[in-house]
Design brief:
The chain is mainly β. It has helices at 65-74, 116-123, and strands at residues 16-22, 29-31, 34-48, 54-64, 80-93, 99-114. It is built from two helices and six strands; from the N terminus they run E-E-E-E-H-E-E-H. Strands 1-3-4-6-5 form a five-stranded mixed barrel.
């Protein structure tokens, strides 16, 4: 693991590890910067809310190049994946001129854990 030590000498780390299910079918997009896909992961929280139920967070992830290509080829909606990456924030203006803030995970590694098809076969 590599840590960045800025001039002040304090160690900083930007790393996220997620395990969740892909919400929609991934599609490969070709851009000038390379191939990419955007996926949303449904990640259940590890604790129950006040109603005794588990909430789920929907986390946007961007995958580039070979990671994107492999994910589009081998994964689909409902598949369980692990993602290791970094958190990236950005601002943009929406169509009405309002300033918006977005946070996403830029994937550095994707691990294919189980397909929805495998889960359906186990449940039979």
């Amino acid at each position: 693991m590599i840590f960045f030590i800025p001039k002040g000498g304090i160690i900083v780390l930007n790393q996220a590890v997620l395990v969740g299910r892909i919400v929609q079918e991934p599609e490969l997009n070709k851009t000038e910067k390379g191939n990419l896909t955007h996926i949303t992961l449904a990640v259940p929280r590890s604790f129950k809310n006040v109603d005794g139920e588990y909430d789920t967070d929907f986390i946007n992830c961007t995958l580039w190049q070979a990671i994107a290509e492999n994910t589009v080829e081998y994964c689909g909606k409902g598949d369980l994946v692990g993602i290791k990456g970094r958190i990236q924030s950005s601002t943009y203006e929406d169509k009405d001129g309002n300033k918006r803030y977005a946070v996403e995970i830029i994937a550095e590694k994707v691990t294919f854990l189980a397909s929805k098809r495998e889960k359906a076969e186990v449940d039979k």
